[in-house]
Amino acid sequence: MNLFLFFLALTIVLAAGIFLWPARRNRKAKPNVLPRPLFKEELAAELGPQIRVSMTRPASGPPEIQLPQKYGVDRMVLLARDPHWLFAYWEVTATKQEEFKSSYGPETWPSTHPVLRVYDVTDVDFNGNNANSYIDLHIEEHVDNWHIEVGEPDRTFCVDLGRMFPDGRFVTLLRSNVVTTPRASLSDRLDEEWMWIEGLYRSIEKIKYGTSSPLIIEELAIRKGALPLGISSPGKWDAGSKN
Length: 243
Prior knowledge:
alpha+beta, five-stranded antiparallel sheet, 8 strands
């Protein structure tokens, strides 16, 4: 009886093992797979524009050349801006300041102030003392250029940069070049010798050189004696007359 029960239990265990073995094998073979999402996921980086960052440095070009503020040269330049205005710029070096202090005293530079003296030197060989007239412009201490209103077209000017003492003495540091303002009206210089070009063309025989240049025609006319020498400006001229 005990032997029968033993074989019955063994049979039951074997039957249960045979039945459960495929399910256990499939469970071990299947990996842990997450459930598939219902919607496609998109990252924020995928939604925006794709920007590639280059890690290489751009090639550096030649350095930009900057004009110097000062050149270390004592100079003053005067320009005629228009018929009524001048423009001056200058540079006073430390050497020039030391020369002034050594000549007039170490305390004279701060006790004086800069002045532009504008001379009218029209029709004058200017030597510093023979100007037709002059005006003084009191300027600021640290400026190096100035617009000067003269209001005099067709006039010649020269400008001194200097220091003025409290008692009115003026000492020149720099002197500019001489400039002439342009005219503000039409020229009153008339030439009475205006030549009538058509008269010249009619007086010359037909040219067979195959050219139509007025300069060549004029040169040929001079060679043929049809045009007198010494005429420097076109004027009314009779082709048949000779001077």
